[in-house]
Amino acid sequence: MRNWEKTLSVLEALRERGQAAGHSWTLDTELLLPHQQQVNALENQGLVELADPEDRAELSALEGRPVRWAARLTPHGYDTITYGRSRPRAEPSPGGEGPRQLVELIPSQMAALRVFIGLADQLRVPPADGLAEQVRTASCDHGIKRWQLYLTQEQITSAAYGFWLHRMTGSAAEANRFGREYGVVYNPSPTPGTGPSAAVPVPTVLGRSRHGDSKA
User: Fold this and answer.
1) Cystine design at 198: which of 17, 147, 189, 206 (Cβ 3.0–4.6 Å)?
2) CA 155 to CA 148: how far, in whole Å?
């Protein structure tokens, strides 16, 4: 389960318990300590509100016992649940493109890809079909600060070409990292007119095992 999925799971639990209680609060007796700690972490993201002393005093009076901890969703938390149920999914198209692989990019790589797809109409070798849509619908796992895309092998090769262009105009770090983690780097073909198909595999020992996820 990815971090954003864990977050939604925690928010859903708070929503259900709060609705069942009738006062929107989830109390200390309803969540184990590790789950309470997960909720506490979501307060910093503005998704959860923790009960202050005055709130706890009111809840203690309602419960007839000391309430030492309570939490409830903020409006942002409710909206995150609502959006999470309908967020764009990076699904394979029905065109028989083959399996997709989970690709996780650091912010600078994602920025380079956005420039690449933004120039699609001006490039002689444009991005692969579907790559622009994958970039637009990508989600960010804020826990590990990575953008997550599900790409076909053709799109991975095209991304390698985009990183090669980025390398040629200033920074090699993004292309080098992509090569280490996904085993594909772009090398220009000496034959005129060839495109990203000239991307060549890097030995799998360089990082394939770290991202073996795939999506059919």
Assistant:
1) 189
2) 14
Measured between alpha carbons, how far is residue 42 from residues 125, 148, 161, 178 in Å? 44, 21, 38, 31
For residues 205 and 153, the model is more confident at: 153
Beta strands in the chain (DSSP E): 26-27, 48-50, 70-73, 100-105, 139-141, 146-151, 184-186, 199-201, 214-215
Q: 160 and 131 in contact (C-beta within 8 Å)?
A: no
CB burial readout 150-174, b (16+ within 10 A) else e: bbbebbbbbbbbbbbbbbeeeeeeb
The per-residue pLDDT for 187 is: 84
Question: Any idea how long the chain is?
Answer: 216
Tokens of 174: 């993004």
pLDDT in the model for residue 136: 92
Exposure string of 180-197, with b = 16+ CB inside 10 Å and e = fewer, is ebbbbbbeeeeeeeebbe
- pLDDT-based confidence at residue 35 (cuts at 50, 70, 90): confident
Average model confidence (pLDDT) across the chain: 83
pLDDT of residue 25 exceeding 90, the answer is yes
Whether the CB-CB separation of 122 and 161 falls below 8 Å is answered with no
Task: Spell 23-43 as b/e; 16+ CB within 10 A means b.
Answer: eebbbbebbeeeebebbeebe
